[in-house]
Amino acid sequence: AQKVTQAQTEISVVEKEDVTLDCVYETRDTTYYLFWYKQPPSGELVFLIRRNSFDEQNEISGRYSWNFQKSTSSFNFTITASQVVDSAVYFCALSDHEGGGSYIPTFGRGTSLIVHP
Amino acid sequence: NAGVTQTPKFRVLKTGQSMTLLCAQDMNHEYMYWYRQDPGMGLRLIHYSVGEGTTAKGEVPDGYNVSRLKKQNFLLGLESAAPSQTSVYFCASSYLNSNQPQHFGDGTRLSIL
Questions:
Q1: How far apart are CA B13 and CA A53, in angstroms?
Q2: How far apart are the C-alpha atoms of A115 and B99, rounded to whole Å?
Q3: Which site among A33, A71, A72, B45 is 20 to 30 Å from B66 CA-CA?
Q4: What DSSP character marks residue B85?
Q5: Percent helix, strand and coil across chain A, each rounded to 5?
Q6: Please, what are the averages of pLDDT over each run of 10 residues along chain A (117 residues)?
Q7: If DSSP codes are grouped into helix, strand and coil, which group holds residue A13?
Q8: Which residues of chain A lie closer than 8 angstroms to B56, CB-CB?
Q9: Is the CB of B58 inside 8 Å of chain A's CB atoms?
Q10: Which of A9, A104, A107 sits opposite B48 (nearest CB)?
Q11: How many beta carbons lie within 10 A of that of residue B26, not counting itself?
């Protein structure tokens, strides 16, 4: 079973629409870390946010917001009033300690967001 | 400030050839990683290193070897390239441990014919 599931392979929206990217994770650790990364068409991977398992506060950064719910093991990402520049592949990642040793991140398969003008 | 630099950016190999991908970071990060990215598969961890002189296997280590002789460098080797290793390879580093954000290189596009 995947530790990080991004069920939406591709989402297509029109500019100014709001869009939510889903991320569901699986871990038995009580301490873990969640991340979102953006990969624009140019190919580089850019860090967006990190959340630890003890901080369930939602976060807003401009048009971006993240909703972390431990009860449903989800860490969803919402873009408000989407823009063409938001077109990218977005990855959710989990870093946990299962099996002992180091925290090693596991990535979801990514959601491709296409924003049409 | 270069961050994470991968060399080369593109390469075409024939089946059976060998090559080494170089990753260099200038942020004094302890942890370094090699991933491959294939369509629809996300990023899969090949090998990683928690410090100079140490390496460990990730999710898909077969056919690859790594070395971390210097803290700032992490080398990925393909001893006998196979078409299944055609992929985009990303190197990343993180400060102290993997609960810190990773900084990624720009990727190496590798084609095996």
A1: 44
A2: 31
A3: A33
A4: G
A5: 5, 50, 45
A6: 88 97 94 94 93 87 93 95 97 82 85 97
A7: strand
A8: 102
A9: yes
A10: A104
A11: 12
